[in-house]
Amino acid sequence: MMIDDKILDAATVWAVRTQEPDFDDWPAFGAWLEQSPEHAEAYDHVLAAAESGAEVLAAGPANDVEPIAVEQPRRWLFPAFAASLACVAAVWLWNGQGGAEVYSTAPGEIRSIALADGSTVVLSGNTRLVTDSDRPRQARLEQGRALFEIHHDDSAPFSVRVGGATLVDAGTIFDIAIRDRQVSVGVSEGAVIYNPQKQNARIEPGQVLSFDKSGPGYDYSAVPVDQIGEWREGRLTFQNAPLTDIAIEISRATGIEYEVDKDSGNFQVSGSVMVDPLRRDPASLGPLLGIETRRHGSAWILKAQ
Amino acid sequence: MSEHPIEGLQAVFLANRDTLLRFLRARGAGEEAEDVLQEVWLKIVHARTGPIAAPMSYLYRTANSVMIDRYRSQKQAHLREKEWSDANSGTLRGVSDAPPADRIIAGKQLAQQVEAALQQLPARATDIFRRCRIDGLTQREVAREIGVSVSTVENDLRSVYRVLAALRERLDEE
């Protein structure tokens, strides 16, 4: 019984998280389990593997003739081994370098991070945020979507890098969503500047600025302020959004794999959906948005009617 | 709340019976979900605990651990059946103490394979795994102890779990 790698990856995320005594996102775990019986199997598999591994390690070294109680030195703390650590760091970049910390979520997960300066960032599914404890007023959103509630400090603006772009703010609430060809930044309180050194475009509450990932172009749209960050409450609203972006957005929020039929990518759709009902019935996205859905393996394909 | 903690927990259980049942089905209990829920109830009733800040979380966690125990028993029962049928397969007739010796050799091989698998990872990852899973520290405690962030600890645990899960898959295929 070979389990799909992606399912094993997700099961691993849940296995590690659920074993922490303060874990409380059981409904989200339940929702992930309900997507397929393979998920529960994978979860049990990973937990059992971890338990066996722990038993084996606890029993002692495999090749000894008789057990010797030797304290294993905590190698990575000693400068003499810094050279070997550098190689390890190069291979394991995702663990961060220096004071860098990487926060990542599985598809369908929502996670709240408290930053050192009192700011909060809520990560949507399939999202990766990098922070640096040496630079508490900076962050980098490498993937996904996040809502930032930044502690106000006029003397020390907070900046978020997304690809080559920089978003700067003195103390506001704003939502950044990385999409297929653009990145959208919506502000609910305060103001954010897009690329102060270049475009220097200001984003006010109720505005969403969408900038091209590869190119200098950007445009504004208006959004009701209370819609900014509504994804935290499990709602997603689209206004003339291309199906490709909708698929990305809904996949990360639900953990369900939605893809777009090759000719339907630019088809624009407007509508508002709740995440939980979709987890129970992925096909219901079709009638909600006026498009076709069909199953293809583990994915759901979206197509313009 | 002035009521006894266990009574409060029971009330939350009864009010959320359907949710817990649904969770157990999602976990794979299938037709036996009602029986498993009974086991969860018995655990709640006999629990020795002080005030619980998050009763629903406690209930979910209890349900989850009952399912984990069931999975473990089912696997062990399967292995015992296998050993029994191996011992009685004819080739080992009259050598009734062979299975325990085989088990020792198999155990050593497993230990070698686990160690080989973990050597692909930085030493820190294995040590973090030990501190959490064998010594029982929380991720936060380990993070403080070795001076890294909680997310680093979590990432390392994921790496180790992933490697062990892959190893277990390979061994299951044999």
Could you list some keywords that capture this structure?
heterodimer, A: 305 residues, alpha+beta, 7-stranded mixed sheet, 7-stranded antiparallel sheet, 7 helices, 26% helix, B: 174 residues, mainly alpha
Describe the structure.
The complex is a heterodimer of chains A (305) and B (174). Chain A is an alpha+beta fold and 305 residues long. Chain A has 7 helices and 19 strands. Chain A has a 7-stranded mixed β-sheet with strand order 1-4-5-7-8-11-12, with no helix packed on it. In chain A, helix 1 crosses helix 3. Chain A starts with a helix and ends with a strand. About 11% of the residues of chain A have low confidence. With 174 residues, chain B is mostly helical. Chain B is built from 8 helices and no strands. About 6% of the residues of chain B have low confidence. Chains A and B meet through helix 1, helix 2, helix 3 and strand 1 of A and helix 2, helix 4, helix 5, helix 6 and helix 8 of B.
Span of the ends, CA to CA of chain B: 55 Å
The largest pleated sheet of chain B is described as: none
Portion in strands of chain A = 25-35%
Note the total helix count of chain B.
8
Record field, number of beta strands of chain B: 0
- If you compute it from the alpha carbons, what radius of gyration of chain B comes out, rounded to the nearest whole angstrom? 21 Å
Shape of chain A: globular
Oligomer: heterodimer
Shape of chain B: flat
Q: What structural category arises from helix and sheet content of chain B?
A: mainly alpha
Poorly predicted ranges of chain A: 63-97
What is the number of E strands of chain A?
A: 19
Give the C-alpha Rg of chain A: 22 Å
Runs of chain B with pLDDT <50, length 5+?
89-99
Q: Helix-strand pattern of chain A, N to C? A: HHHHEEEEEEEEEEEEEEEHEEHHEE
